[in-house]
Design goal:
13 strands; 2 domains; 21% strand; four-stranded antiparallel beta sheet; Rossmann fold; alpha/beta; seven-stranded mixed beta sheet
Length: 391
């Protein structure tokens, strides 16, 4: 069985995505509420440590992991981060994570694979300096590495593009089929290519273009995840729904009219935006989209970050907040996943998480093939008996 460490673990969505062939031997998060959700779903066997990552010691981390995953905080890399980037207090924990990886390497326990995940703002924050920092950390610690920008809408009906930087130790053999000679993949976006072109020559010497197959089209649309009788939210009153419709421009009202004529149940996402009217005054608008995809889940720091849905059945129009179970489904989690009872806690857990099917895709198409090659060749003196016998 493959083993991994999960830093900034949240509710264990990476663990969900990796699946039963992987065993988590160490997990960490500083948030006690997230820790309760993690234990509710994954048990209390002792692998989870709730503490600030700055307080961790490698003595807390057993064995020789096959992979370390870190979905480090994104706040300072996002548009709301005031340009602090990796110098910020929260996103700056990236440096602490790599100091731990460095200590594991000194102890002869460096994981063959390291994966970090964050918002795509990491490509451009501080004019590309943060992406250089991320990549140079891989290179300094002996990892050849590459990145992929994957939108979760390939797996679930949620628009959620994220940056995945994946490194493999220098002494691990890489099958030629896993590497492209240049940027040529749908996951090698123009923004990623520009960021790579800005890297220093020294850092680019360790760069790889990962070559993965294009995933099959997702099986679900937004309408498929919507609950008929949600338990965590109530439907809006007729007056509340009318108020939202009154906030719409003529273009958005026309979308609702078209949805009524569709002849099938239609589900749209409503987003509150500040726009300027014909006189140049700022007004709040409600904008709706019926494209079978929810907007990106975010932590509920304010009312506008809680998504509102509109369900249109013929002439009947209803609105309400997105339920917590619907949010979990949009993250690719099964209905057996146990959510916090409090709405904000559950929504926050989902908004901070990693889409599980995206992790499964990476495991199937990249992590497991890399580790299978390592087991077969025995590089670095770290054969994996489970994979070796499976091969």
């Amino acid at each position: 069985m493959l083993t991994f460490y999960e830093f900034f673990a949240g509710g264990g969505m990476v663990r969900q995505g990796l699946g039963p062939e992987w065993r988590c031997t160490f997990a960490n998060d500083f948030d006690g509420k997230k820790g309760l959700a993690y234990q509710a779903n994954w048990g209390t066997s002792g692998e989870l440590l709730i503490d600030d990552i700055r307080n961790l010691d490698t003595a807390h981390m057993p064995g020789d992991p096959d992979m370390a995953w870190a979905s480090f905080p994104c706040q300072d890399l996002s548009l709301a981060g005031m340009g602090r980037g990796l110098n910020g207090e929260r996103s700056g924990t990236f440096h602490v994570f790599w100091s731990i990886m460095g200590r594991l390497r000194e102890e002869g326990r460096a994981p063959p694979i390291v994966a970090v995940e964050n918002v795509c703002g990491a490509l451009t924050s501080r004019a590309g300096a943060d992406f250089e920092t991320i990549c140079s950390a891989f290179a300094r610690n002996g990892y050849r590495h590459g990145a992929l920008v994957i939108n979760a809408d390939r797996f679930v009906p949620q628009s959620r593009p994220r940056l995945f930087v994946i490194g493999v130790l220098d002494d691990v053999a890489i099958d030629d089929s896993l590497i492209a000679p240049d940027a040529a993949h749908v996951f090698h976006t123009p923004a990623l290519r520009r960021a790579v072109n800005r890297l220093s020559e020294q850092t680019r010497q360790s760069w790889l273009w990962w070559n993965l197959p294009v995933p099959a089209r997702r099986a679900l649309d937004f309408v498929d995840v919507v609950e008929d009788r949600p338990k965590s939210v109530d439907w809006h009153s007729t007056e509340e729904t009318r108020a939202l419709l009154a906030m719409m421009s003529d273009v958005n009202k026309a979308k609702v009219v078209a949805a009524k004529r569709a002849g099938r149940r239609m589900v749209g996402g409503i987003y509150r935006r500040t726009r300027r009217d014909a006189d140049g005054n700022k007004v709040q608008r409600a904008e709706v989209r019926f494209d079978n995809v929810a907007g990106c889940l975010r932590t509920p720091s304010g009312g506008s970050s809680r998504q509102i849905i509109m369900v249109v059945d013929g002439r009947r129009v209803r609105t309400r907040l997105l339920s917590t179970r619907e949010a979990a489904r949009l993250m690719g989690l099964p209905d057996s996943y146990r959510l916090p009872a409090n709405y904000n806690d559950a929504y926050h857990l989902m908004g901070d998480g990693v889409v599980a099917p995206a992790v499964r895709y990476l495991a199937q198409q990249l992590f497991e093939p890399l580790l299978s090659t390592e087991a077969a060749i025995g590089t670095g003196g770290r054969k994996n008996p489970a994979l070796e016998s499976a091969g």
